């Protein structure tokens, strides 16, 4: 393809190959936004200067495209890779460093992305965007560079890069919690759906490290006639028409939910999980004992 009005075809600068390390271990102490690894690749077309003749190509529209990782993160010019917690920034580093984005166009003079008008180079940086999970970024094309509507260069990773991170750990320090709700008169429940006051929270302690993703599930028997957030009473002489709701952050938890509740934790954290409870009227009330013994299950990965 030739440029409009030009006499010289658009250049073909081939492929720039960037070789990141084959294996990278991300330390748990690395802060979000920190650099995991960085590498630069240079075009083999060292005579690129002859393609930068202003009278032929200038002005033109130059376009750097990220073609594989296109989901933006909260960090500037950093896009999410397929590995959790690992983002990528691609910069044209010939001449002035300039990050390229996903399918964006930047109109600049010819040769802007050339190093002294001779050699094109790109730098790929892997950046921590959050808790890192093990995975592999595979080799192959990740970007391209265009003049007007012609691709003049491709950017590729030359090999697979395996990402490893310290295994997350989490220990539950509180194995039994007693939440007293006291004696409550049946007359205080005006109608089905009425609740007693929420108890003071009982705290469950967790000790976690290496950024685990911790979830919590309430396990037990759903109260007959009650919503899925109501646990059935248990034991001899149990009252009728009443169940118990267990609350986390003031929100009733669903019994045996298939979508566990996410618990916020940070690296090497001592975490306190506040749990409270209340009675919930499910139907006609018969006086009796009102105890329930559900289980809170914690999982992490």
TrEMBL record:
Compartment annotation: Fimbrium
Record-annotated Fimbrial-type adhesion domain positions: 167-300
Keyword terms, alphabetized: Fimbrium, Signal
UniProt xrefs under SUPFAM superfamilies: Bacterial adhesins
Transmembrane regions listed in the UniProt entry: none
Family designation: Belongs to the fimbrial protein family.
PANTHER family: FIMBRIAL SUBUNIT ELFA-RELATED, FIMBRIN-LIKE PROTEIN FIMI-RELATED
This protein's name: Fimbrial protein
Originating organism: Ralstonia soli
């Amino acid at each position: 393809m030739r440029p409009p009005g030009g006499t010289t075809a658009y250049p073909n600068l081939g492929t720039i190959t960037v070789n990141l390390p084959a294996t990278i271990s991300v330390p748990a102490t690395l802060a979000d936004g920190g650099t995991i690894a960085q590498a630069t690749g240079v075009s083999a077309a060292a005579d690129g200067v002859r393609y930068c003749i202003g009278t032929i190509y200038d002005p033109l529209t130059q376009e750097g495209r990220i073609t594989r990782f296109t989901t933006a993160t909260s960090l500037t010019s950093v896009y999410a890779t397929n590995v959790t917690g690992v983002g990528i920034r691609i910069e044209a580093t010939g001449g002035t460093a300039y990050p390229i984005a996903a399918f964006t166009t930047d109109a600049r003079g010819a040769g802007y992305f050339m190093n002294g008008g001779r050699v094109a180079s790109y730098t790929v940086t892997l950046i921590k965007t959050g808790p890192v999970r093990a995975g592999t970024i595979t080799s192959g094309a990740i970007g391209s560079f265009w003049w007007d509507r012609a691709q003049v260069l491709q950017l590729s990773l030359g090999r697979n890069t395996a990402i490893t991170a310290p295994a997350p750990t989490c220990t539950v320090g509180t194995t039994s919690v007693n939440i007293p709700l006291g004696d409550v008169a049946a007359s205080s429940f005006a109608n089905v759906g009425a609740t007693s006051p929420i108890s003071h929270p009982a705290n469950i302690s967790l000790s976690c490290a290496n950024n685990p993703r911790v979830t919590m599930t309430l396990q037990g028997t759903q109260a007959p006639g009650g919503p899925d957030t109501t646990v059935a009473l248990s034991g001899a002489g149990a009252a009728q028409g009443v169940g118990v709701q267990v609350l986390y952050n003031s929100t009733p938890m669903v019994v045996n939910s298939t979508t566990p509740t996410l618990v916020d934790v940070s690296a090497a954290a001592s975490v306190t999980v506040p749990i409270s409870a209340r009675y919930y009227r499910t139907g006609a009330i018969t006086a009796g004992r009102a105890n329930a013994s559900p289980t809170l299950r914690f999982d992490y990965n």
